[in-house]
Amino acid sequence: MSDYTWANAAEIAAAVAAGKVSAAEVTAQMLAVIGARNPTLNAFTAVTADRARAKAKAIDASPDKSKLPLAGVPFAVKNLIDIEGLPTVAGSKINRARKAAARDAVLIERLEAAGAVLIGALNMGEYAYDFTGENVHDGPSRNPHDPTRMTGGSSGGSGSAVGGGMVPLALGSDTNGSIRVPSSLCGIFGLKPTYGRLTRARSFPFVASLDHLGPFARSVRDLALSYDAMQGFDAGEDAACVDRPVESTTPFLEQGLSGLKVAVAGGYFRQGASPEALSALDIVAKALNAGSVEIPQAHRARAAAYVITATEGAALHLERLRHQANDFDPAVRDRLLAGAMIPSTLVVKAQNFRRWYREQVLALFKDCDAIIAPATPVTAPKLGQVNFTLDGVELPVRPNMGLYTQPISFIGLPVVAVPLPLKPLPIGVQIIAAPWREDVALRVAYALEKMGAVAAPRPELKT
């Protein structure tokens, strides 16, 4: 039997559909890899082995498995996404007292309908208010390229699991950068769709007006396959989900860059970036023959995103803060408490600015189809590292890993994060498109991947 440990989702699905390998064999391999690597990387908080074996067995018995685009592909989800039979802990101590979820999240149901095999739940920053991947209750998720370093957060377990070869696909959430930051630090691909594109039904929220769910993968085609499987209107449980037709992206990947104009975000998005971040951006810009564009008032967008994040997050957790404050991670608790004290007049100003800023940024897409920007200001910091230095200035790690992601998610634009396999550590670049144009961001990413400009590097793991 061939080893499918590092196979991409598309390769696994094709092999299972053709009968070259069984879904049960792939599942057994992945469970063995998780058993060997997770003690080091700490990506999984629960492994659903019996469920995975049963699902794989059902796929192998199906006469229609050749029609399943993700036949036998193992995947895992951030532990704020409901898994039937498990409490949805959202990285917290408090949520462990919740009843087990009665149903899977809608996106799990859709992936499994496409033939994918759920194999577990993944570590994350408490209540998704985190950019480091360090969880005080479950321990930190660890970077597969150097386990002494951060994965980024809050979807740190997702980044570690995919980057470390434990699953080819994972789901995470992104409020201010929680898909793109771990993608950058762990050297993998990630997709934050347009706000409202993928339903968040049966997942634990953080900031309702900013939350997105999306996939991680080691190839662009895998991102597209999983994204296409998850599309579809949710008429009931997520009021933000927009009623749009399913628009398959995989058929468009091979169109490449034909007819597309790409620009590099300047100004704010180059100021203060590390040499590694600028090198990655320049490599991508050169490969795309990109022009330049200025995103106006990005620094104010980040500030406004902080105000909205803090106040909405505090409102969600107010009762927990009143009655169980000592059960929070102190760093999360203190930021939520601060958010509860922000005057409503500032929130109104932030929302008014948000509307103005969205109009200004959308106008930029009249002259270009995609904008590229750094994903993180630096490569993965050390676990426990408090500050990093940019241009001689020390900045706190926890808030500033989202320096370049917050001004984009603030207005819900679709973004593909692509990894640059730099040595000794990878770093990512964002490919930003207009609303509902995930196909454009994926086409640009796929073209870069085919050129060899971007790739998910395989870490040198001891196991």
Summed up, what is this model?
The chain is an alpha/beta fold and 463 residues long. 37% of the residues lie in helices and 15% in strands.
Quaternary structure state of the chains depicted: single chain
Q: Based on the structure given, which CATH architecture is correct?
A: Alpha-Beta Complex
Helix % is: 25-40%
Percentage of β-strand residues: 15-25%
Write out the strand line-up for the largest beta sheet, numbering strands in chain order.
1-3-2-6-8-7-14-15-11-9-10
Unreliably modeled segments: none
Number of domains: 1
Q: What distance lies between the first and last C-alpha atoms, to the nearest angstrom? A: 20 Å
Number of helices: 14
Give the CATH level 1 class: Alpha Beta
Shape: globular
- What does the largest sheet look like? 11 strands, mixed
- Integer-rounded radius of gyration: 20 Å
Q: Give the tally of β-strands.
A: 15
| CATH topology call | Amidase signature (AS) enzymes
Spell the H/E element sequence.
HHEHEHEEEHEHEEHEHEHHHEEEHHEEH
For this entry, give a set of tags.
single chain, about 475 residues, alpha/beta, Amidase signature (AS) enzymes, eleven-stranded mixed β-sheet, two-stranded antiparallel ribbon, about 15% strand
